[in-house]
Amino acid sequence: MKRLTLILATLLLGASALAQPLPDTIYAEVRDGHVQGIALDRAKGYMYYSFTSSFIKTDLAGRVIGTINRIQGHLGAMTLGPDGRVYASLECKDDVIGQGIANRLGVDKLSHEQSVFYIAIIDVDRIDREGMDPEKDGVMTTVCIREACKDYVDHTYGCSGIDGVTFAPAIGKCGKKLYLYVAYGIYGDNGRTDNDNQVLLCYDVKDWKRKYETPVVFGTVPDNGPDKPLHKYFVYTGNTTWGVQNLAWDPFTNRIYMAVYKGKKPGYPNYPLFAVDVKQKPVKAVPKGLNEEHETLELSSQGLYDEATGIRGYDFKWGSTGLCPLGDGLWYISENHKDKETGIQSCTARLYQWVGFGNKPFISK
Known about the structure:
This protein is mainly beta.
């Protein structure tokens, strides 16, 4: 009887959380680093934010529940996993940001060949106070994305690392099981043509905890991770500036959305938002600008259409610093801001409704 009562109480608590009205905005701020991604746990009533080298957990009123402030690397886009943990991209590399983080933490700077890219898996249920440490408090593990490490060394396909992450069904199958999709960061280089596609890696994370998850030890860069992804998809969008900043699967439309910083190559429409339908069948083909065959995906047939290139996309100001679809046509989308006087950087996660027009895909609630 006690067990039945506990189960009923748990179900009622979850239903109560889902029934709570969603606020129009949820706000968070830091003094160092701009917002990179957001994730919502609607059932538990928490919002999560990544701010380059820190992680914040708030309630839906924006009250800070806890933070992780000592992160070795560039914490990027993130998503709530099916297991209730947050999965985020984490870059430990030889660029200016990476060197700055190494200096601040007092760890060795990495060479180009030593640069490494991870999915950071954050046990958000254990975050209950400010200033938690991923090593001492054990709230974070990492899994190396070895495919991106390999492509980064020679900047194959313009690879600058990884950023956007999301969970979505298997493309072309649309079953109930969700897979992790990881998007490359891609250099905005007008002088080459092999960087005109977005690259999405697909992984089954079922055995990651047992096989690959590695506790954080500062100063070390382990390479525990799968040798290859299940799939490596190419999506022709034209070149963008730093590739997919945020990736998000929306169950309402059954599409994966890619928010980017606009590209600068003349001749492309340079949209800031693209989408691919999950139900489509991938096609083996030679992507534009390349000379070898890969699995390719087509952009969704919705949105604005550029006749010269055949590229479709959406015109929307926000999304590159956080996309969070709720599954019912509602989204929380990050609006980032930096106060010029104080230097404080902030995120206003604003509630939007999907309407789907090419020049106005969302309206604020």
